[in-house]
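Hey all, sorry for the wall of text incoming. These are the two entities for the joint prediction.
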Amino acid sequence: MKENEKTRGFSTRLIHHRGSVCPHTGAVSPPIYPSSTFKQQGVNEHQGFEYSRGRNPTRQVLEDYIADLEGGERGFAFGSGMAAISSCFLLLSAGDHVLLTRGLYGGTYRVLSRIFDRFRIQFSMVDTTQVAAVEEAIRQDTRVLYLETPSNPLMEISDIRALSEMAHSRGLMVMVDNTFMSPFLQRPIQQGADIVIHSASKFLGGHSDLIAGLVVTRGEDLGRSLGMVQSSVGAILPPYDSWLLVRSMKTLEVRVSRAQESASRIAVWLTGRPEIEYVYYPGLPGHPGYDVHLRQADGAGAILSFRLSDRVSAPSFLRGLNIWSLAVSLGAVESIVTQPAHMTHASYPVSLRREVGVTDQVIRLSVGLESPDDLIADLEQALDQNKE
Amino acid sequence: MSRQRLGSTDCVHAGTKPVELSGPIIAPIVHCAPFSFSSSAEVMAFQEGRSERQQPEYGRMGNPTVAFVENRLAALEGSGRAVLFASGMAAITSFLLTSLQSGDHVVLTRDCYRRTRDFSTTFLKKFGVEVSVVEPEICEIEKALRGSTKMIFTESPTNPYLNVLDIEALGRLGKSSGATTVVDSTFATPINLRAIEYGVDIVIHSATKYLGGHNDLIAGVIAGSAEVVNPVADMRSNLGGICDPNTAFLLERGLKTLALRVERHNSNGQALAEYLESHPKVERVYYPGLASHPHHAIAKQQMHGFGGVVSFEIRGDLELTARFIDRLELPHLTPSLGGVESLVEQVVVMSYWLVPREERLKLGLKDNLVRYSLGIEDIDDIIGDIARALDGI
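and here's what came out:
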């Protein structure tokens, strides 16, 4: 990297990055290498590529790209966000314990409670908005503090820097799921985290047309360990999807900026509606994590949730929406609405959902690129339709 | 337990039949050459136009993924129909070959993409079509009209000097003279100008540029009323310059961020043009968003923004301009335009190097002309890079 490239603006770094130009042809779109194996000159004499499960030139462009954007040493691309998350948990051993942000994504909970549980890896959930509560919850066998900030779907904010300092002093590794923010808005490694995880199907992919996961590690040792997991377990992202994801990330800044602007307007509008009991959005000054969030992130993002009053039936409100697609996933050009209790968090036992506050009345919005006026008008007519 | 021996028939057919997937929010990519019918009766009904089926029997005639994007493009241009081609030039040449015949006369504006002009003045001439090449001004076009004029073809903004035509006046001229009016709107995009709303018949794009927007596909589009475009679609089945389904998918994906990208291209373009205009080492800047541009008034009236291409002349000769280009670190030195990456070219070097200098000057192309296609990078980085390069010459 040339000296002046380090200080370039984020959108410039999205466009011009390691590998963005093919050195062989000058192509400004990286080539797709659908090659499983690579010819060697002599035994183990090659240009760094042997077999595509280990390394593939197209995937390498993506992995370097995300590593640079997050400010970590190494990037890893996986076949899905869950492949990324579970590959990170494979760094653990039997007998280890993980502390999790309470109420986090149901898929993360499911893989720990249904799969890693069988290998004697234990976990517990804790209110990670409170550093003291986390410190108190650390056990002798705790190895990892796993954060989602903002959390899904209640948008609770955890202080990455303070928690990382505390966790490191107790010998823990800190993993942060940065899916809701993307590196445009938040770069957890710069705040002290060891591993950053993305479901790249969301904002990074952005077009609802690919499934991928990305991980960035800090430090050489961690990079080597996760590289061993990636090439041994093999949940890799194929070359074509790697290329499509690189293409997607070129517009990350314009997409997220626009969606965030709209989300902030929608959040304010929702707070004025009598049918809405509470709006969960860290860009609202009344949000309990407002100060911490704006200190560690460059914006509040394009995801928000709200709690419908009991007078409104959530299913009929959802059916009444026209522009908002009722679907799982988020971070797309299309606006998406989700009822987390029965969709993204269906793997939680009912009691746990109640405990963390993911009730049937909680609705999550992922704001897309449509005109915010249209999005608000659609919410308005669906609320009006469902007045008693 | 009965055992079944698998054969190749199973490999091809087992367990599947054509199914409607439920609710994907992205159109499927259909890589398919022949499209099947359920019965002879369905074939007959389709041939006679009695069935609801849209999909022709063979991929050269049409493809569902391509049609999906064509519908989006027609909606964006406000036209009845849009058809996609393998490249911008396939779109242009297919349209010209469909619409013209020997004895016809075409008026083409001079400042335009070189290959459009070359095709018109060589191929069309060979087929007995006469072509007048005139300055990009409505009065000049009007002067060139003849009884046999079948078509007026122009770009707006033009390449590389960014001339802007009064599109409404062009539409009126077409109506009064009976000539088909065609605007290559590649530089404008439907975000900045929807030419069909101003009364022209046909809009053409190299979709490789802003519509695709990522410098990673080659495609072209023709948009207009179904009456005018349907014969072009039919001819496409014969000439064969079709767009493939995967390119169509990528194009549609590009369209989703078109408005966002073009807004950024517009603001970057305006900022760079203003910066260059005040720079002592720059002789002249061509950008319709500048008050100094001869067509600023009409551009302001009919366009929502002025795009991401800025052309300018370095105060110096061919060599000095080349030195400036070579000092740039941010943009890629390459032709093309309209993508997220900034691209730059010295026009006479990149596109006219083997054309004698006198010929180039006759076309109005000066040695020191630079065409800069702004990407969506931070404008501070773009201007900072140009400032450094200008300082060094």
